[in-house]
Amino acid sequence: MSPLLQQVQSTALFSGIEELDIGIATVARPADGLPPPSMLDNVCIFPQENELRDPHGELKLRSYGSRPDQLKLLHAERLISIRDVKESSTNYKAKHPKSHDFSRYVLPASEDELRVQTTRLTIDRGLPDSDSIVSSPDSSDDSPISSGSTVASSSCVAPAGSNEALQGDITDSHCHLDFHARLLQEFSTIASFKNDLGLPQGDLKGLDSDAYEQLEARLSVDDQDTPDSWIPRSAELRRLTGKHPLNAEPDLLRLFEAGIITPTKLHFVRNHAAVPQLHWETHTVLIYAEPAELLSKPREWTMDELTSGDFKIIEIPVTIGCDGNRRREVNMIKRTVGFNWTASGVSTSLWRGVLLRDVLLGCGLRETPETERWYLNFEGEDEPASGRYATSIPLGHVMDPTNDVILAFGMNGRVLHPDHGYPLRVVIPGYVGGRQIKWLKRIWVTKEPNRSHYHIWDNKVVPSFIDSKTHPLAKTFFEDESTACWEQVLQSIICKPAHEERLELPDEDALEGTYTVQGFAFNGAGYRIERVELSLDGGKTWRWCFRHFVDSPLRHGTKYWAWIYWSCDVKLRELVNAFEIIVRAQDSRKMFQPENITWTLTGMLNNSWYRVRPNVCRDVNTAGIVVRFRHPVAPLEEEGGWMKSPEPPAAPHADENHGLQRFSLDEVAKHDKVDDAWLILDNKVYDVTSVLSWHPGGPRSISMYAGKASIVASIEYKNIHDNFAHGKRDECLIGMLTEEGIRTMEEQAKRAAQELQELKAARSGLALQPDSFVAAKLLRRNDISSDSRLYTFELPPGPDGKPGTLGLPVGQHIQIALHFKDRAVMRQYTPVRPVLPGEEDGTFDLLVKTYFPLEGETMSPGGTISNYLDCMEEGEEIDIRGPSGGILYKGHGIFDIEGTSYWFAKVNLIAGGSGVTPHWQLIHAILSDPTDETCVSLIDSNKAYDDIWMRDTLSDYAERHSAQFKLWHVLTNAPQDWQYSRGRLDRGAMEQHLYSCEEGVGTFVCGPVGLVEDLALPALREMGFVEGKSIFVF
Fold it and tell me: Would you tell me how many other CB atoms lie within 10 Å of the CB of residue 684?
């Protein structure tokens, strides 16, 4: 054990602290590059600590450390609830919104951790277990160009980006004069560049002005069952490796057209694991050396200390590209070990930060002896499968002031986005993305390169004969620094014409028009792109492309850190007759891109000529002649690029499902009963009969999908279940669908996707969306009773800046999401306002019963969502999505239920507790429309008088609309002067106060599982009602 660790532990014992979470600043293991004992006076031994005590002063919970997920539940004899976690965890986003973006507050615990206490504590005490409370070809021959030369465009056209068409005939001499003038203008512009001083443009901005153009505010449903549930991500990012971790790129044309400075929400993302849940207010970065004498003043820096002004802050445009950019082209030759990036794994942002060189000097960095090479190591807070993501670069590169290596805390004028390293990352201009560590936690100086897994085995280009990581020489090459990717490579890409772009050719005259081919180019080490060239004849001749730079691109007289855009105007006739459109670039060293791809095991740094192929064909829809353009590869795993893989496609559904019994959809359909229930989830078949008896949501929430070929079950399951449920699910696995069944389900999935797009189009402009979560801010709360609250939330503004519109159809619900450290927890609620369009005012009301934690013989941590809401402060946020639910009221007795239309002249409603809220929607909608003659009868069942929600409002409606609305109450514990039913809901009360079973009568039930399953449904069946025909459960 290291001396520092011994001192830390002895100090902890002396201070009486029962548990200590030892962070990176407090542990010393020299073999791991951690600070040695001599640093004891320079590091923070005890990080920030928060305590929560009960009213008697007894410690219930302590959280500490800069990581918000560094929270320990203490005292095994006490039950820790979500209230304890919420009240002990600071919501920094609400307190300091300018230091945060649209990312959400995360609770530093998991719901599973809170639930498992009940079982553990009851076993320890010998008490009965209790369930948690859970709420419900060549160029033309007449070209005058000599072979092998680089020339101007053969046509005289308007400048790139101009929409002006050519007017009349222009001679070639005029064309060349125009080209010459434009060329002189380009050279003059470059000669006029002055050094960019990197002065920041004002303070970092908050969530105002162009926030919605730069940032995504909505949460994707794809992230809600992952630890990244709290991070807003644009739907325009294409996910390359599934849902988690996120590795994504934008559409190439969209990236280009978004502008030379990439909006943050379109910046490519490369993550190896879950994004660390960090805060500006508590995050620190430790800077030290090993051996210690290389740095005289090691220190742990807070974000405020780094940005306070002691160090010069610069803001410069820098292009960062993934080492694996264009790897899919390499994979089309032979499979590499990496996934399929296309050409859009690169972006340019304005990065703001302090020069790392200055910070190191401030920490007392010694001068490196001329005979030695030192290295600077970086490590982030993320935790990939093979250990912390760390790397090193030569220290000399950092200490060269012309290299602009910065500790970045700003991106495009705001704090960093979580996916891009919030709150601190290193930006190394001209380097590959794999060296630019995000979520920076420690930096240290060494005399040897880093030895971590990712430094050795990632971001390397090994010889082509190394065809696997098990090759006898693989380890030797991977461990040698000569194979490491450092600076970016010279690269140029065609963005226009886009992949699958189609250009109409209505007649022969159209061929005399022009087309502006456009794209971008970038380089490493700050070398300027001196030339971009286009070829239409397989590289025999090349045409000059005009360059377009970012504002103030020059640093230190020679350095260009940002990409350029380029353009070249081409006659359509030449474009159509070309076999390929090829682009290449040349840098200031007169180096060109290689013509062909060189295969390597990692597929990294592919910078061969980029080629787009035009093809003249007839449009199947219009029968007109079009030019179809295809890039080398299509995005994601899609077919369509002109490159073809020599390898046969893998058989679908292989390997992982080998040996499982196959079931047809007809066979599954036979098992649709409560005592024999099979369920399809993601093409696998589960016998869930045994689950129905104990499922917290009641058997019907499962049995309603039993035997059905529906993807809804898979969608709903993913939305609301946790790791415990996953385990129980896997115990029930009995097989998978046949290939025919899978095809049928896939077709259904396509239809569902089409329906989703139609729904999104219909809800355009509304706050509530079916496939993403939006933040709603708590404005106020009112106590309705000892355990019931009315919460008013504010919706985000609409696209026009006006108050947001909920737009929730009658009979539908919203889904609320809270973010825990491992995933989002979601529940469905029905707002009590607005119900009608005229009630929309940019807010909505939720009436919620709080299921408080219970201790004693019956133990429960309580309702997760309801307790969280009860602990919220004004200004804090929840996330909402919708509409959800299978029941939709269209008015005048017409219902759409799970896609089937029903008409009822009379409607029975049975409610229990908070289950009255969807019924209130229906009642309010019907009685507010004088033309709706639907009759309604409501039985509202509760335990006590104070539990009756909306009591006065419902009574008033019953009095004013007595011919159309009947109201009856049932109370378990009724007061003396009670005029309604006492005890539990029974068949007698239902027969007396509900409409009898006949044609045109429908019954809707909502409430606790016991009320629905044990009381209401059995009695309704005896009365002649039939589930799915005249009985429906919300």
Answer: 19
Active-site option among 100, 272, 397, 813: 813
Question: How confident is the model over 855-880, as pLDDT tens digits?
Answer: 776 778 888 999 999 999 999 999 99
Q: Is the pLDDT assigned to residue 240 strictly greater than 50?
A: yes
Global pTM?
0.81
Active site residue 375: no
Which residues, including other chains, have CB under 8 Å from residue 75's CB and lie 6 or more apart?
58, 59, 60
Q: Answer yes or no: are the C-beta atoms of 559 and 199 closer than 8 Å.
A: no
The pLDDT, as a whole number, for residue 137 is 33
Task: Indicate the range of 122-126, 165-169, 421-425, 507-511 predicted with least confidence.
Answer: 165-169
Going from the C-alpha of 354 to that of each of 312, 360, 435, 817, 871, the distances in angstroms are 6, 11, 18, 37, 39
Q: What is the pLDDT of residue 174?
A: 57
Please give the pLDDT value at position 479: 96
Q: What is the dihedral of CA 493, 495, 499, 501, to 10 degrees?
A: -150
Centre a 10 Å sphere on the Cβ of residue 280 and count the other Cβ atoms it contains. 21
Question: How far, in Å, CA of 350 to CA of 261, rounded?
Answer: 7
Catalytic residue among 600, 830, 843, 1003: 830
pLDDT over 80 at 532, yes or no: yes
> What single-letter DSSP state applies at residue 852?
-
pLDDT at 122: 47
Residue 45's contacts (CB-CB under 8 Å, 6 or more residues apart) are 8, 11, 25, 26
Nearest residue to 745 via CA among 674, 670, 668, 677: 668
> For residue 28, what are its two tokens?
């010393």
Q: What does the pLDDT look like over 783-793, one tens digit per residue?
A: 998 899 999 99
829, 851, 868, 957: the active-site residue: 829
Nearest to 893 by CA among 964, 812, 808: 964
Residue 851, burial from CB neighbour count under 10 angstroms (0-12, 13-18, 19+): buried
Per-residue pLDDT tens over the stretch 711-743: 667 765 654 455 566 778 888 999 999 999 888
Give alpha helix (H) positions in 777-885: 864-871
Q: Are β-strands 564-571 and 559-560 bridged in parallel, bridged antiparallel, or unpaired?
A: unpaired
Tokens found for residue 834: 């607005």
Whether 957 is catalytic? no
Q: Could you tell me which of 693, 850, 874, 878 has the C-alpha nearest to residue 785?
A: 850
d(CA 102, CA 291): 41
pLDDT, mean of residues 413-435: 97
Q: How many CA atoms lie within 13 A of 22 on its CB side?
A: 14
R_g over Cα of the chain: 33
pLDDT beyond 70 at 42: no
Residue (of 195, 143, 834) closest to 542 by Cα position: 143
Say whether 892 is catalytic.
no
830 part of the active site: yes
Query: 767, 774 in Cβ contact below 8 A?
Result: yes
- For residue 937, what pLDDT is reported? 97
DSSP bridge partners of 522: 491
Q: What region does 914 belong to: left with phi over 0, alpha with psi -120 to 50, or beta?
A: alpha
